[in-house]
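[Q] Does anyone have a clean structure-token version of this?
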Amino acid sequence: MPRKPDTPCAGCGKLLYGGKSALPPGQRTCVDCRGRARAGSNLGRLCAEAECPKPARSRGRCKTHYNIVTGNYVGAVEKDPERERARLRIKTHRRKDWSRLTDVTPEYEVALRAKAKRCPLCQVKMTDEPYLPHSKETDHIVPRGAGGTHTVGNLRVICRTCNLARPWDGSDYTGPVTLWAEVA
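[A] Here you go.
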């Protein structure tokens, strides 16, 4: 049977789990009250802002009002609609641009996976079960993030362990790179 909180906090009255504590039940405090006690004289006080029911933390204010006063409040910053539209336009353009630079069909990728039996890098026998250390994963010789394309000349199937160990820029590959592997 699960335990239920049964001991009230000495600072705020919130129910706590009994557990093993050196303090008697009337003197136990919750994490928030212990933090306020360490912060100083704000123990049991509410935020200094009008009608804010939250407990005071630093300089007599709750966390939200303290961040507003000091200028660290993220919610107060409004996003520029023009800039947001431009960001989404660029994101969509990149996505469409990647899709135009491919000659790999789903059938080709299935055939490539079926043909691959051993990892060309570590020679381990690969499995079709996903997310295992030796499962088959499609790899870009020149990674797409480093300017590579999703083309037949830039694809291979390697094991998951080798794929995760490769650097992001593909600098570990020493073999021949086809003309269509890199974007000009």
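[Q] Thanks! Anything notable?
[A] The chain has two domains: 7-76, 101-181.
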